[in-house]
Amino acid sequence: MRARIGESILRLWTESGARSLFIVGTGKNVGKTVAMRAIYGACMQEGITCALTSIGRDGEAADIGDAAPKPRLWLEPATVIATAASVLPHSPASELLALTPYQTAAGPLVYARVRDGAFYELIGPPHASNLRRVVRDLCALAPRTLVDGAVDRIAALAGGEDAIVVSCGAGAARTMSEAIDGVRALIVRLRTTRFNGGEARRIEGALTPAIVAQLLREGETRAVVVRDPTQIALGGKAALHAFDRLTIRCERPLKVIAVTVASIGADGAFEPRSFAHDVARATGLPVFDVYAAEYAA
């Protein structure tokens, strides 16, 4: 069933026309790596060579912060990766494709090709501008590129033509309603509508809570236009309030294609079907439960 979820998301990715796909989570431990494995597995079944990287650290056996166990990342031969040279497995050996000028938290970044199936760690560049260059390079090395992202680093989406999957779950919220509000706010932000002309108030740089408060005091009725959704520095209820009161538009929209949910967290769990269906209603997107292997329209 999880393979079918991977196939469904792969189909949405193909339909989007994007060659790269970012998986962005609303927090830690919300199933991003599980979603990545499902999509990657679907690519392997279809005979599609994939490149993978991360804006943080993924695939390690235990979380570096709290030592909690994490899902491993088994990669098949011919897969291309961008990761720190220090975490490449000594056996089986990988084919080194290129050294790069970029640094990760664990040292220099390299491009490599998997020779034999094995567990791999992905540690990518922490800076958005470098990650964009890495994604461009990976797209030249493989037909598809998968990136495990992070909600606090969505600046890496700026200037790209990527498809986006958002992951949410019990690991990043105390209650189901809190999780739903969080993912709805992020989706509203990422899916900011394209500006199609008319009177506008253009914002240079980030749209911050302070600027929103000023616009509301002034009774702004024109479209408030930013370059792209990554410039909207609002989250949670502040984002929902701003989009409710202002007409916020962007020049370069992003392509959010689906949401994945993980109803199980370290400190609790949500009723799986209710959670998936409520997220679908709140976001208007296809929703996939990566643990229960179910789909909510």
Describe the structure.
The longest helix is centred in the N-terminal third of the chain and has 15 residues, at 2-16. The protein has 297 residues and is of the alpha/beta class. The protein has 2 domains: 2-186 and 255-296, Rossmann fold, CATH 3.40.50; 192-250, no CATH class. The mean pLDDT is 90. A 10-stranded mixed sheet has the order 6-7-5-2-10-1-11-16-19-20, with helices on both faces. A 4-stranded parallel sheet has the order 12-15-14-13, covered by helices on one side. 30% of the residues lie in helices and 28% in strands. The chain contains 7 helices and 20 strands.
Quick tags:
single chain, 297 residues, alpha/beta, Rossmann fold, ten-stranded mixed β-sheet, four-stranded parallel β-sheet, 7 helices, 20 strands
Q: Which consecutive residue ranges, at least 5 long each, have pLDDT under 50?
A: none
In sequence order, what are the helices and strands, one letter per element? HEHEEEEEEEEHEEHEEHEHEEEEHEE
CATH level-two architecture of the largest domain = 3-Layer(aba) Sandwich
Structural class: alpha/beta
Average pLDDT confidence is 90
Question: Total strand count, please?
Answer: 20
- State the end-to-end distance: 16 Å
CATH class of the largest domain: Alpha Beta
Note the beta-strand portion.
25-35%
Strand order of the largest sheet: 6-7-5-2-10-1-11-16-19-20
The biggest beta sheet is recorded as: 10 strands, mixed
Number of helices: 7
Radius of gyration: 19 Å
**CATH topology (level 3) name of the largest domain:** Rossmann fold
Helicity level, as a percent range? 25-40%
Number of domains: 2
Shape: globular
